[in-house]
């Protein structure tokens, strides 16, 4: 029976971490890699595990791969501090690892709690993420945003949900959009992508229609409309920032470097 290490990367997650770690106390091991938190994050982590490490922030991909290398076991469950493993998912993971797994990685749906309800519509659901994997056959990959596990082999599906608590309120959501669109624009710029009137005027309305109509955001009432609108705003803002980078490369590059440096200090 393969043993399991849960890995969590943190930076000032005192308000989230206890519930996250409580949801995985059943695991064989918990490893926390902290990026120089100034709150009680490390103290909270040490209530659950002795495997707590401090690592200067190198970026999401590098930090998550670093956490995997520190694990004692090859099977990894990567958990964010604002996530919780449901009892149903915990049982399913343990059943999957009750014998040699047939596949090197498994993904699971993630439900987000926002504006007082679970959102199971829009682009936010089922929002499947590969989080359970054998580090001998998989590792984290990506650049600045939307990092993911790259797997050498097929990926299985689990039915149990991760529960996600990403935003305190709409203002917190907007701050996150601003940070992530800065990363997204920088990433697209370095990939040679361009933004013009077509992208700025066309992509956001299409994103709203996809979220609100095609993916059923209308079923969630006002919260569904807000999520659909802010997802469209995310698309608009990343293309607007990409256009800015292309039009004013020297000034914008300095601004992006300064902004991402600020983001990394906060992350």
Task: Provide a descriptive summary of the structure in words.
The protein is an alpha/beta fold and 267 residues long. The protein has two domains: 161 residues, Alpha-Beta Complex (Spore Coat Polysaccharide Biosynthesis Protein SpsA, Chain A), CATH 3.90.550; 97 residues, no CATH class. It has eight helices and 13 strands. The protein has a seven-stranded mixed β-sheet. Strands 5-13-7-8 form a four-stranded mixed β-sheet. The chain has a two-stranded antiparallel sheet with strand order 10-11. It is globular and about 55 Å long.
Descriptive tags:
267 residues; 8 helices; 13 strands; alpha/beta; disordered C terminus; 21% strand; 4-stranded mixed beta sheet
Number of helices: 8
Order of helices and strands: EHEHEHEEHEEEEEEEEHHHH
Helix content: 40-55%
Order of adjacent strands in the largest pleated sheet: 3-2-1-4-9-6-12
CATH topology value of the largest domain: Spore Coat Polysaccharide Biosynthesis Protein SpsA, Chain A
CATH class type of the largest domain: Alpha Beta
How many strand segments?
A: 13
Estimate the mean pLDDT confidence. Answer: 93
Assign the structural class, choosing from mainly alpha, mainly beta, alpha/beta, alpha+beta, or little secondary structure.
alpha/beta
Give me the CATH superfamily of the largest domain: Spore Coat Polysaccharide Biosynthesis Protein SpsA, Chain A
Strand content: 15-25%
Count of structural domains: 2
Low-confidence stretches: 261-267
The oligomerization state is single chain
What is the overall shape?
globular
Major pleated sheet:
7 strands, mixed
CATH architecture of the largest domain: Alpha-Beta Complex
Rg, please?
19 Å
Distance between the termini: 36 Å
